[in-house]
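4.2 Preliminary Data

To establish feasibility before requesting continued support, the project team ran the inverse folding procedure on a target of 228 residues. The structure was first converted into the token representation described in Section 3, and no sequence information of any kind was made available to the design step. The complete token record follows.
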């Protein structure tokens, strides 16, 4: 309900992930509770979710419904999280604003005259507006960090290849980036980012994508206050 109210004001949600209610009912019957048990989580447009489109803000991709969840979405679900919406991005994602010709302009919930930043602007707007408590964005040159700054949030771009990006728009590009694109969490506090990273860096991630170094999250390093 909160996500719907927020998107009515700032136009940040582009799709409702059907099946999330069924997933919640299945979770209630499970004996083992994951680290993100029962947490609704928003997902950036280009991250693949089964049965949904990853448009990249471009019309040419609208008819391409994905047949499987990306690795990161599978891991989130295995940890008990419930992906429930996909959020807006700028066309091609190479932009520090958040607008495209399909879904329109996303506004900053703190000031509707301002941009939420990009390219994870839909995530920034939704979380800052109170419609989501945890989201997954992506970042090459500031696409998590800028919306987090513009919207007063916390965001983390992990080290390259720390988290699986397969399969997603990153894997389908026809050009090579000098800086590795990476997916990462966005939330209202650092503790939420740390919890999400701890949940993602698990055996399921390393099993589904063997190219990811099997190095778990180091809680002691975070508690010492050293850089993550």
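Position-by-position output of the design step:
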């Amino acid at each position: 309900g909160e996500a719907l109210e927020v998107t009515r004001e700032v136009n940040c949600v582009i799709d409702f992930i059907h099946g999330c209610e069924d997933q919640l009912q299945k979770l209630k019957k499970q004996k083992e509770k994951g680290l993100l048990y029962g947490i609704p989580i928003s997902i950036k447009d280009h991250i693949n979710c089964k049965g949904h489109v990853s448009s990249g803000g471009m019309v040419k991709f609208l008819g391409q419904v994905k047949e499987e969840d990306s690795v990161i979405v599978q891991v989130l679900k295995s940890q008990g999280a419930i992906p429930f919406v996909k959020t807006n991005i700028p066309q091609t994602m190479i932009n520090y604003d958040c607008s495209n010709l399909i879904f329109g302009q996303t506004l900053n919930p703190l000031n509707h005259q301002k941009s939420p930043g990009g390219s994870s602007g839909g995530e920034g707007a939704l979380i800052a507006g109170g419609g989501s408590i945890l989201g997954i964005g992506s970042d090459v040159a500031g696409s998590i960090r800028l919306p987090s700054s513009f919207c007063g949030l916390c965001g983390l771009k992990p080290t390259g290849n720390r988290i699986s990006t397969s399969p997603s728009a990153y894997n389908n590009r026809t050009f090579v980036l000098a800086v590795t694109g990476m997916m990462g969490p966005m939330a209202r506090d650092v503790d939420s980012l740390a919890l999400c990273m701890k949940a993602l860096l698990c055996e399921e991630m390393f099993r589904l994508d063997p190219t990811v170094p099997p190095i778990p999250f180091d809680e002691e390093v975070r508690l010492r206050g050293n850089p993550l």
